[in-house]
Amino acid sequence: MATRGFTGRRSTGDETGRVPPGQHLVEDFPVLSAGPTPRVKLDDWSFTLKTGPRPVKSWSWAEFNALPITKMTRDIHCVTTWSKLNTPWEGVLVDDILADAGIAAPTGFALAHSYDGYSTNVPTADLIVGKAMVALRYEGAALTPDHGGPARLLVPHLYFWKSAKWLHGLQFTERDEAGFWELRGYHMYGDPWREQRYTND
Ligand SMILES: Nc1nc2c(c(=O)[nH]1)N[C@H]1C(S)=C(S)[C@@H](COP(=O)(O)O)O[C@H]1N2
Ligand SMILES: [Mo]
Q1: Rounded distance, CA 71 to CA 89, Å?
Q2: Fewest beta carbons less than 10 Å away: which of 42, 56, 171, 176?
Q3: What atom of ligand 1 comes closest to residue 159's alpha carbon?
Q4: Which pLDDT does position 131 carry in this prediction?
């Protein structure tokens, strides 16, 4: 403890206690994508909710934007070790998507599916009760294509790879099914505060 003032957490710039272990703060907003940015025209965009293979409801861009819009300002943490504080988003809570579909969450797990073929798994409990949204805006403006526009999932309390960009749908699954990075050695849950980076962390 005697050395804390010289070499402790504060030397990493974390005066807030909001930076998880192994992370450092950034002021810019890095772009991380497994492949090229897909260009999705708003006229062609749709979002589909599924239970297993069965479509429950689909929304066009106009229909989706008519759902209740919620603002959420959160810290985000990428597994490549950058964290960014107070990122301001607007979008539709998963709760409000389920309500519009007239269902309660039907299973314990979900897979997010994206226009670039990306997918990621998240337990249902981490998507509901105000914890996650389908974000449509960042810093008051439409999401840029590189950051996932037209729409991306935002699950801010898990590593940022869970926040699928270019979101096309959410599929509820009976079991916890691995997505793109989870099949390639990343953790099934991804809690930054427990440093759940890789499969066996
Ligand atoms: N569809 C899709 N979503 C994705 C990715 C991707 O390659 N494709 N990369 C993930 C990863 S690893 C991170 S860290 C964040 C990066 O989001 P950003 O580019 O807006 O910072 O998006 C996540 N969502
Ligand atoms: Mo990432």
Answers
A1: 6
A2: 42
A3: 14
A4: 98
Domain assignment present for residue 19? The answer is: no
Give the predicted TM-score (pTM) of the model. Answer: 0.94
Q: Does 21 reside within a domain?
A: no
Q: How far apart are CA 85 and CA 197, in angstroms?
A: 20
Query: Is 96 part of a structural domain of the chain?
Result: yes
Strand partners, 77: 83
Nearest CA owner, ligand 1 atom 6: 33
CB 34 near ligand 1, within 6 Å: yes
158 neighbors 164 (Cβ within 8 angstroms)? no
Cα of 1 from ligand 1 centre, angstroms: 38
Residue 128: domain span: 40-194
Q: Which of 32, 115, 183 to mutate to test the pocket of ligand 1 (most atoms within 8 A of CB)?
A: 32
For residue 16, what pLDDT is reported?
80
Residue 68 domain-assigned (yes or no)? yes
Residue 13, pLDDT score: 59
